TrEMBL record:
HAMAP family assigned: Pep_deformylase
Native source organism of the sequence: Sulfitobacter sabulilitoris
Keywords: Hydrolase, Iron, Metal-binding, Protein biosynthesis
CDD domains registered for this protein in UniProt: Pep_deformylase
Name of the featured protein: Peptide deformylase
Details of cofactor binding: Binds 1 Fe(2+) ion.
Positions contributing to Fe cation binding: 97, 139, 143
Active site: 140
EC number from the UniProt entry: 3.5.1.88
InterPro entries assigned: Peptide_deformylase, Peptide_deformylase_sf
Pfam families: Pep_deformylase (PF01327)
PANTHER family: PEPTIDE DEFORMYLASE
GO biological process terms on file: translation
Residues in the signal sequence: none
């Protein structure tokens, strides 16, 4: 199957603020979209990508947090992912987002999450994620609910990043 890179939307964009719709049937188009998203994510490079970031309102995320040289890749495709339970214990990671390039901030999230999803073959899967994987899967599921990592920050910090992004987009539009 040929993988095609897709364009990643940049914040602020109303399509990034919308809740995505559950996937009801796994079609070849959706599988193609998942493959394209993985291609787009690895190329960026990033460790996660959600369908709304490429302008599609489907509950689909892809991720792979094995980013060190020499590690075997572990691409995960998740349709309709949902967090079944999360730990009281939290973790802080410096997060970034392919839709908010070059902006990073510490975000506190549950350290462990139990996640259920439908994989690329249509099989219902369930797994407990921790460390970077836990942060990443929560960040991506947030995208499906129209939430960005900056929505976890204090309003001032969020506004500062948004202003920088508005400026960046204006510059890119002029090129
Ligand atoms: Zn993101």
């Amino acid at each position: 199957m040929i993988r095609m890179k897709r364009n990643i939307l940049l914040h602020p964009d109303p399509r990034l603020k919308k809740a995505a719709k559950p996937v009801s049937d796994l079609s070849d188009e959706l599988r193609q979209l998942a493959d394209d998203m993985l291609e787009t994510m690895y190329d960026a490079p990033g460790i996660g990508l959600a369908a709304p970031q490429v302008g599609l309102s489907d509950r689909l995320i892809v991720l792979d947090c094995r980013k060190e040289e020499g590690e075997t890749p572990r691409p995960l495709v998740m349709f309709n992912p949902r967090v079944l339970s999360s730990s009281d214990e939290t973790n802080v990671y410096e997060e970034g987002c392919l839709s908010i390039p070059d902006q990073f901030a510490d975000v506190t999230r549950p350290a462990e999450v139990d996640v259920e999803w439908i994989d690329r073959d249509g099989t219902l899967r369930r797994e407990t994620f921790d460390k970077l994987w836990a942060t990443c899967v929560q960040h991506e599921i947030d995208h499906l609910d129209g939430r960005l990592f900056i929505d976890h920050l204090k309003p001032l910090r969020r506004q500062m990043i948004t202003r920088k992004m508005v400026k960046l987009k204006r510059e890119l539009a002029r090129e």
